[in-house]
Structures are given as C-alpha cells and as structure tokens.
Amino acid sequence: MIEFITVSKLYPGGTLAVDEFSLVIPAHKTVVLVGSSGCGKTTLLRMINRMEAPTGGSIEIDGEDISKTNPVSLRRRIGYVMQNSGLLPHRKVVDNIATVPLLEGMNRSRARVLALELMETVGLEANLADRYPSQLSGGQQQRVGVARGLATDPNILLMDEPFGAVDPIVRSDLQLELLRLQRELGKTVVFVTHDIDEAFLLGDEVVILEKGAQIAQKGSPEQILARPASEFVADFVGTRKGKRRLSLSSQPADKAGEFVVVDGTGRPAGVLELEPGELLGAASKARSVSDKTAQAGDA
Amino acid sequence: MQWLWENRDLVGGLLLQHVALSVPPIIASLLVCIPLGRLANRFRLTRGLILGFFGLLFTIPSLALFVTLPAILGTKILDPINVEVALTIYAAAIMVRGAADAYASVSREVLQSAKAVGYSSGSRFWKVELPLAGPVLLANLRVVSVTTVSLLSVGALVANGGLGYLFTNGYQRAFPTEIVIGIVLTLLIALIFDQILVAIGRLLMPWEKATRSPSTSLQRVEVG
Ligand SMILES: Nc1ncnc2c1ncn2[C@@H]1O[C@H](COP(=O)(O)OP(=O)(O)OP(=O)(O)O)[C@@H](O)[C@H]1O
Ligand SMILES: [Mg+2]
Fold first, then answer.
1. CA A31 to centroid of ligand 2, rounded, Å
2. Nearest chain B CA: its distance from A92 CA (Å)
3. How far apart are CA A202 and CA A56, in angstroms?
4. CATH number, residue B195
5. Rounded to a whole number, what is the distance in Å from the CA of B114 to chain A's nearest CA?
6. Does the C-beta of A83 come closer than 6 Å to ligand 1?
7. Of B110, B118, B120, which is closest to A88 when you measure between CB atoms?
8. Which residue, A176, A280, A299, B68, has fewest beta-carbon neighbours within 10 Å?
9. What is the CATH number of domain A1-77+156-170+181-240?
10. Using CA atoms, how far apart are residues A80 and A160, in angstroms rounded to an integer?
11. Closest residue on chain A to B210 (Cα)
12. Substitution candidate for ligand 1 out of A36, A39, A192, A236 with most atoms within 8 A of CB
C-alpha cells in the first residue's frame, strides 16, 4: 500500500506541480493516474521512489515514511518503467534486464538465467538476449523495460507512460500483455498515462487529475463513466459529446434485435444486440460496447 | 636506405625511446582529465576555471616551457622528466575540453533512469557515465596521441631522446635523408598508436560497433 498524505511539490523554478495531494493506493491493484500534460503525474510517480523530494506532506509505503529510508535501496525494490524505456545503451538486453540483481552482486550466469526467464515472461524472443537496446524496435525496448522493472520481483511497479512512444497496434499488444502479467503477478502498479482509454482498460482504479495534481475524480472505470463528477471529467472521458456518448442510430441493422449505435460525433460505433424486452438494460450495455470499440478504434 | 641500414642500431634505439617517452604523457593526460573533465562538466564555475586554466597553459610556447620546467621542478636541464611533464601539460590542455564534452555527450535521460533503477552515485559514474563518455574520450585521446608523438620531437632540442635527434642531427649535418627518416618514423609511431587506441576502443566499447551513431565520431573533437 502506498499512501500520499497532503503531498506538495514546489519546484525551484516556482512551479507548484503538486498541491496537497492525498491518495491511498491499495496493494495488488493497478491504479492509473490520468490527466493532461503538465498536471503533475510524473512528479507524483518520481516522489514514490524518491527521485524527487516532496516539499510538503509525506509518503508512506506499507506504513513506513519513505523519507526515512535509504533512497538507493528503496529504488532497487521498486520497479520503474519509463516512456522511452530508459535502457542503458551500452548494455546488452540481458544485462539491462538484470541491472539491479547485478548491482546487488548476483553472479553473471545466474543473472543471465533470470533475464532469460523474464524475457519469456514479457514475451521477448530469447534470440534478442545479446542485442543492444538500439538494435530493438520501440515495442521490444518497452518489453525489456518492463522485464527490468520486474527483475527483483518488486511489490511495487511504477510505470510512466510506458507505452506512449509506440504505435497503436504495438501499444494495444503491450496493454493486453500487461493485463495478463498483472493477473499472474498481482503487483501494486501505479500507472501514468494521458490516454483515458488506456486508463479504463488497465486500471482497477482510475484517478483523473487536473493541474497541480488536483483529483477531479477517482473510482473504477464503471463508476466514472456512470457518474462523472464534473463537466471536466465528462469532457475528459468523452461522455458529454465524445466517442463515449452513444445513441441508437435510425438505421436499422439487418438482423432482428440488432441496432447500429453511433457516438457523440455521429460516427457508427458498433452494433447493439437486444433481446426483446431488454431495452431497459440497454444503457449499461452500450457503455461496455463503447469501451471495446474505443480500443478497436485505436488499433 | 643505406644510411638507415648502417645506423639501424641508433635509429632503432631512438624509435624505442620515442615510444617509451610518448606513452606516459598520453596516459597521464587521460588520467588527469577523467576527473577534471567531469568536474568541468558539472558546474558552470568549474567549467570556466578549468577550461580557462588549461587554455592558458596551452598558450605557453613549448620551448619556453621546456627550458623553465627544470627550474620549477628542480630537475637537471637534460632530464627527460622535463619533457614528460611538459608534454603531459599540453596533452591535458588538449584533452580537458574534450573530456568535458565527452561527459556532456552522455544522455541526461539515461543517467536519470540509471539513478531511478537504483545505481548509487559511485557505481553510476563508473558503470554508466564513464563508459558512455568513452567514445568521445577516445576520439579526443586519439588527437592527443598524435600530437604528443609529434611534439616529442621538439623535446630533442632540450633533452636526449626520441626521433627528434634525427631532425637536429640531420639539420646540423645538412643531411636530408636523416630528417626524412625521422619524419616517416614519427608518422609511423603516430599511426600505430592510433590503431592501438582504436582496437582498445573496440574491445572496451563493443556497443559502439553495434550501434554506430554520428554523435560519437571524430567530428566532435575540437582542439584547444
Ligand atoms: N525538474 C523540474 N523543474 C521545474 N519544473 C518542473 C520539473 N519537472 C516538472 N516541472 C513542472 O512541473 C509540472 C508538472 O510536471 P510533470 O512532469 O509532473 O507533468 P506530467 O503530468 O507528467 O506531464 P506529461 O504528461 O507531459 O508527462 C509542469 O508544469 C512542469 O513544467
Ligand atoms: Mg510525465
């Protein structure tokens, strides 16, 4: 469990990036921090592994104030995955993955075995083991980054727009892979993105942030879709006019009991299937359809 | 050619001496500039001070340095130490800016991410920053190596040793062959040193070959 207690961060330049932020991140869940650029997401994440120090408030991990821990050992027990993979360009894939175990003195042959196992876990071919990061595609680099984050089997995994720099098809691959991994591993994942679709797909809990890391709303994707707390949230998730505002088109589908659904911009979003007399349940069903079509639309 | 054959012992001895005298300043300048370059790249103030100081050193006429060093160091006039110290000063003066550039060429993002995954500052320097500065360091060291090998010939004016003797002797005897041989052999040493440095670089920085990128080639070198 990670707990932010009225945390603030005022950068030396005078930017108040985080203003009295409080949040409890439960263990073994994926919490997604989502918000537009510059709202303080990265700053929040970097305070968890003490890459930045809060200027106010405190952060606790399992009840322990992290400002009292040794920063180097804290970072070694927290997996961290960055947008541009952050791999060491002069180390082979295996050595990158085993960075922390090697730092902790694991011998090279054991580290290699471990790295190869992790490569399999994240879906990388073993023949990439001895390449350098620049010899990999962006998607492969991100997988290496995830594998590195998992190398010490940390309880906590911080992910800062890890899939932001890859193309949509690879991104949705990586997202599904992460979902599968998380089902197996059950880490406490703090995931940062500005893509609301990604947030809804991955998050057990989604925290929508405004400037200064002000929480606009937090809850499960369903809760947020069902009851956006403000117009800002409704706009952000697209239930006001966007692609999540679904309605039945006047165009009937071929099959009886099926209806074409259009989104807020009038574009066809999918087909809604209704049993006779099911009309009342339609609203909730349409929403889940929208989730999937949003995914498909991205790909 | 016949002269060369007849004097092969003399020339061979001078050649070995030239090699033996040019290696220490090259290595010493590298050892001095690894920390100094790091410091120069760290703060604006230290950058100004260090680069300014070495820039100044570089403007001292070499002959003046050769002849004043004995007084400063308390060594004998003809002691090869004088030449070694003088050459080290020049080599470091060339190297220090390149070393600062070498550290500047290391991606800040990579350093940040190394810190974020748990490198301590010491291990981050030795295992990440220094190796990644390696290619630019090497490029500069190659310039230093060539410069030192050729500058050592000047040392023959004030001390015994090295192929410079062939120049002074050939000049005094008005015997161009000897001078030409001196030049050719000096070039040869410079070339061989360069090849050795390149080979060491390949060995120590295998990722370079695999990922050759323009930012790490010789074009970054600025002398002086
Ligand atoms: N090292 C720093 N020094 C000064 N200001 C900073 C620093 N890092 C971030 N900021 C400022 O703090 C605010 C929040 O930045 P942060 O990187 O946390 O945003 P973000 O939500 O991650 O944005 P993005 O989606 O673009 O990555 C921004 O206004 C940014 O300019
Ligand atoms: Mg960010």
1. 16
2. 8
3. 30
4. 1.10.3720.10
5. 8
6. no
7. B110
8. A280
9. 3.40.50.300
10. 8
11. A132
12. A39
Range of the domain at B101: 2-223
Taking the C-alpha atoms of residue A126 and residue A261, their distance in angstroms, rounded to an integer, is 45
Assess: ipTM above 0.95.
no
Domain spans of chain A, in order of start: 1-77+156-170+181-240, 91-154, 247-298
pLDDT of residue B218: 43
User: Into how many domains does chain B fold?
Assistant: 1
Nearest to A75 among B109, B117, B128 (CB): B117
| pLDDT tens, position by position, B127-185 | 999 999 999 999 999 999 999 999 888 777 766 678 888 888 888 888 888 888 889 99
CA of A127 to the centre of ligand 1 (A): 38
